[in-house]
Amino acid sequence: MKYPEHGSMILEIIKEGKIVPSEVTVKLIQKAISFPDNQNHKFLIDGFPRTEENRLAYEQIIGADPNIVLFFDFPEEVMVNRILNRKHGRVDDNDETVKTRLKVFKELSLPVVKYYSKKGILHT
């Protein structure tokens, strides 16, 4: 499933090193959810929402919370090792940048994890 109306805009945003706006991401998720071939109405959305802004946009546009939220919690040492040793990693996969990304993850994503935990839909 492709969405050419968003493709060039998303590509430009990524090239500039910016993050695709939450509203755009959620609208793409919404299109995928309502795609006619999806007869079982079940989805696994990997890595989203990552921030409170993502979460709020998702709730506002989709109009519902996820049924289940999965959170895989590993020690930082394990995560760094896995990232640095994956076969198809990112260009900036080195010890320093990976640790920086994990720090940013903790700052931005853990509030989302806590929110879903309080709602009783988080599974670890």
From TrEMBL:
Stored InterPro entries: Adenylat/UMP-CMP_kin, Adenylat_kinase_CS, P-loop_NTPase
Task: Give one GO molecular function term.
Answer: AMP kinase activity
Pfam families from the UniProt entry: ADK
- The answer, when asked if Iron-sulfur is one of the entry's keywords, is no
This entry carries the following GO cellular component terms, namely:
mitochondrion
Q: What does the UniProt keyword field contain?
A: Kinase, Nucleotide-binding, Transferase
Q: Which EC numbers does the record give?
A: 2.7.4.3
From the Swiss-Prot or TrEMBL record, give the protein name.
Answer: adenylate kinase
Q: Which organism is it from?
A: Chenopodium quinoa (Quinoa)
Provide the taxonomic classification: Eukaryota, Viridiplantae, Streptophyta, Embryophyta, Tracheophyta
